[in-house]
Amino acid sequence: MKRRQLFAFIGAAVASLLLTLSLSFLPSSNVVAQSNGTVLVSAAASLKDVMEEINTAYKQSNPGATIKYNFGASGALLQQIQQGAPVDVFISAGKRQVDTLEQSGQLVAGTRGVLAKNRLVLIVPKSVTGVTSFFNLTRDNIKKIAIGEPRSVPAGQYAEEVLKKLGIYNKIKAKFVYANNVRQVLAAVEAGNADAGLVYRTDAKISNKVKTVVAADEKYHSPIQYPMGVLKRSKNVNAAKNFIQYLSGEQSQEILKKNGFLLP
Asked: How confident is the model over 32-65, as pLDDT tens digits?
């Protein structure tokens, strides 16, 4: 009798072990749920239109996923993250903001990448004539020049760098109208509240109320790129990684290219 009980015990133990091993090779329902969950993305304001288009395409191949965006100035978005905002993915318009997160150990290892690149351009309202270069900004008839706030808006930082390199920064600084993000710069020029402005090429492309005068020489400013990464605080790391991977893929890159962005 004792022998039968012993064999029964051993048999049950082996069966339990085999069941455990077999389950370990099956995909966890929790992992599946995470890969299809909600991803909160904080992204630079200049990405608004293209990211919404990418979201539409992403949902077609990932029907269970939900992407929610928070657009704004890269510096302001960084500040929100540092204050505890529940962000899964951060996409900045400048390297400095993502460097800050990486150096403080807040990014998931191996998730940092570059989404795209851009160019900085000088724009004026369509009705304005006679402005053909950055040096024309020193003229008396150009009274207001819109740029992003350099401390929080990468486009403003790039604008300052260009104007200083050209030697006209101090001559026109009194004309600056500072905006909280690059789309506000575009809106100011569109409305005629500024005689000129410095925005990204992709911003100028979406407006029929402004015209591009000239693109800044890339040697006059820091590289304009959009670094991205997944935050360690993310409650949905697998879904965030999946979205980052999609952004680096061919379909997403084609959408970016169509909208005027340069591929990394």
From this structure: 334 468 999 999 999 999 999 999 999 999 998 9
Predicted TM-score (pTM) of this structure: 0.84
> What is the β-pairing status of strands 145-148 and 196-200?
parallel
**Domains of the chain listed by start with CATH number:** 29-117+225-258 (3.40.190.10), 120-220 (3.40.190.10)
Q: How many residues does the chain have?
A: 264
Among the listed residues 217, 264, 262, 260, the one whose alpha carbon sits nearest the alpha carbon of residue 53:
260
Tokens read off for 103: 């150096």
Buried b (16+ CB within 10 A) or exposed e, 152-168: bbbbbbbbbbbbeebeb
List the structure tokens of 191.
Answer: 């409305």
Q: How confident is the model at residue 96 (pLDDT cuts 50, 70, 90)?
A: very high
- Integer Cα distance of 55 and 41 in angstroms: 11
